[in-house]
């Protein structure tokens, strides 16, 4: 019986380690994509944006929630402050352009004097596209001076021509030391658009990992239950065998 209890304790310890590792993985991933904020505005509302070509047909589709994460010199507080602001789709204007191997989406708000541009690049040989550049300029009322940043060496939101890229998890695009963009529930298709509907979605690795963790935890718990049940049945059989009549 002592041996059986030992097996059960060892199994429980292994399963707990698996669960703990899975939870730590999720927490670490969240920590990597969570920026410090003066006040957390919560998850942003998702906006839907369509760019049309010169002949009037749709050439870029985008659907996503956006947060602007900027550290700047505050007039009201007279110090440097980090602020996260959600981009409000109903107060955001959009435009853009499409070419054979580049496409852009420009978002702007009049009330907050903010301009945000996404540039996508297509590799015609591999038929793969990616987000290659993001630029941001902001002149908020509380800023002592306007903020401007650009990152033209990005390699994010990778997809295949004719397909859309999808990622439900939060991602962070770093533009500068004090400027970044948080994206949520992204689905984009900058090339190979036919009509107003997204092509079949290619999901990001973050979403795949997020689905894998519950599967691992569930399998570990199922394994623990099975081992404990087998150990109980073996122990019960041995117990009955010890009291057999001679």
TrEMBL record:
<feature type="signal peptide">
    <location>
        <begin position="1"/>
        <end position="31"/>
    </location>
</feature>
<dbReference type="Pfam" id="PF01299">
    <property type="entry name" value="Lamp2-like_luminal"/>
</dbReference>
<dbReference type="InterPro" id="IPR002000">
    <property type="entry name" value="Lysosome-assoc_membr_glycop"/>
</dbReference>
<dbReference type="GO" id="GO:0031902">
    <property type="term" value="C:late endosome membrane"/>
</dbReference>
<dbReference type="GO" id="GO:0072594">
    <property type="term" value="P:establishment of protein localization to organelle"/>
</dbReference>
<dbReference type="InterPro" id="IPR048528">
    <property type="entry name" value="Lamp2-like_luminal"/>
</dbReference>
<feature type="domain" description="Lysosome-associated membrane glycoprotein 2-like transmembrane">
    <location>
        <begin position="213"/>
        <end position="244"/>
    </location>
</feature>
<dbReference type="InterPro" id="IPR048524">
    <property type="entry name" value="Lamp2-like_TM"/>
</dbReference>
<keyword id="KW-0325">Glycoprotein</keyword>
<keyword id="KW-1133">Transmembrane helix</keyword>
<dbReference type="GO" id="GO:0005886">
    <property type="term" value="C:plasma membrane"/>
</dbReference>
<keyword id="KW-1015">Disulfide bond</keyword>
<keyword id="KW-1003">Cell membrane</keyword>
<dbReference type="Pfam" id="PF21222">
    <property type="entry name" value="Lamp2_2nd"/>
</dbReference>
<keyword id="KW-0472">Membrane</keyword>
<keyword id="KW-0812">Transmembrane</keyword>
<dbReference type="GO" id="GO:0005765">
    <property type="term" value="C:lysosomal membrane"/>
</dbReference>
<keyword id="KW-0732">Signal</keyword>
<feature type="domain" description="Lysosome-associated membrane glycoprotein 2-like luminal">
    <location>
        <begin position="44"/>
        <end position="193"/>
    </location>
</feature>
<comment type="similarity">
    <text>Belongs to the LAMP family.</text>
</comment>
<dbReference type="InterPro" id="IPR018134">
    <property type="entry name" value="LAMP_CS"/>
</dbReference>
<keyword id="KW-0458">Lysosome</keyword>
<feature type="transmembrane region" description="Helical">
    <location>
        <begin position="211"/>
        <end position="234"/>
    </location>
</feature>
<protein>
    <recommendedName>
        <fullName>Lysosome-associated membrane glycoprotein 1</fullName>
    </recommendedName>
</protein>
<feature type="disulfide bond">
    <location>
        <begin position="167"/>
        <end position="204"/>
    </location>
</feature>
<keyword id="KW-0967">Endosome</keyword>
